[in-house]
UniProtKB/TrEMBL annotation:
Entry keyword annotation includes Zinc: no
Name of the featured protein: Cysteine desulfurase
Gene: csd
PROSITE patterns, alphabetized: AA_TRANSFER_CLASS_5
Gene Ontology BP, a term: cysteine metabolic process
Origin species: Tepiditoga spiralis
Amino acid sequence: MLLKVRSDFDSLSKKVNGKDLIYFDSAATTLKPNRVVEAIEDYYKNHNSNVHRSPHTLAGEATTMYEDARDAVANFINAKREEVIFTKGTTESLNSLAYSLSKDLNGEVLISTLEHHANFVPWQQLFDNVIYYDAENGVFNEEKYLKLVNKNTSLISITGQSNVTGQEINIKNLVLKIRKINKDVIIVLDGAQLIPHSKIDVKELDIDFLAFSGHKMLGPMGIGVLYGKKYILEKMKPFLYGGEMIDQVSIEKTTFNVLPYKFEAGTPNVGGAIGLAEAIKYLESLNVNEVYSHIKELTSYAIKKLSELDFLDVYGTKDTNHNSLISFNVKNVHPHDVANLLNDLYGIAIRSGHHCAQPLMKNLNVHSTCRASFYIYNTLEEIDVLIEGLKKVNKILG
Ligand code: PMP
């Protein structure tokens, strides 16, 4: 158990309606450890300046800190530093990629109904030839998915873990199989839910692009990453034009900066990058295997306990590998009412709604669900309180 980490989060001492906060909404955004907040504060108090521009001391310090943050990200995912582009988050990473590739890519784009809208709508809106894999009752079936990959597939974009069911997809296996069918497919991984608790080694997985958000892995909001293989990024057109991303500008012609700056137009989120790097250092200090097994233990316990409640419908957890979150409904009760009551009576924070995954909601034949998500600071005892809370909700509203 990672119980020792709880003291690193001041926000865990918050009282909600007189109860100790039980934060089960980390899939939406994690709490921030004190050292991340302090690193951001230190930057703004002591080193704040625009980067890459001025020769003065503060500018030098800010530039070093920003570029060190890029190194920390690159090491974390086993990429080269020039392959790490800072963005606002997963949504911006995926949109930017889709815009840039849409000018040059022909062939089929394969996506699935398991995706968050951020990995669904950009491809749907920007490409003519989109193929959809429809999950069955919310469950990804590799064999059926692979039937949709062919010699004409130019890109697939897939999540490493569903933000609704928690199903983890064996990306390494999948990539190997995809490349056997068509070695040239560009493979994009939405790592937003996977990277907070799993090691993603972009070389080992042999993916071409990876998108993720800092705020779902203990970092601040407004910072994320788009990783891309260098040789593809070199060929790709920039998706934003402006300062920083240029080499020479004249009326006749503009030439672009080298990687990764070609894709980082404008003033970047320096404090955000520094906060993300601090979050990565913190996660690394905890040991990724320990993080994974702690969250897995919580998830398996929650699935077991929630599945025992006959007044609940639990979604998409049959016979598959799940981690970090679970979706459910109390029969005949609206998920918003469940979430409100858990908050009001027990101080439990869960999410209710469609989780930005309406195609998956349709697939599951529901409009919305409750979602409890777990992270390093949660405990089995907190899940017991959730069970007690759900029984109470059912008694009052069911
Ligand atoms: N993909 C997945 C799987 C997600 O869970 C989320 C966030 N809920 C996103 C993409 C979008 O991330 P962001 O809002 O940080 O851009």
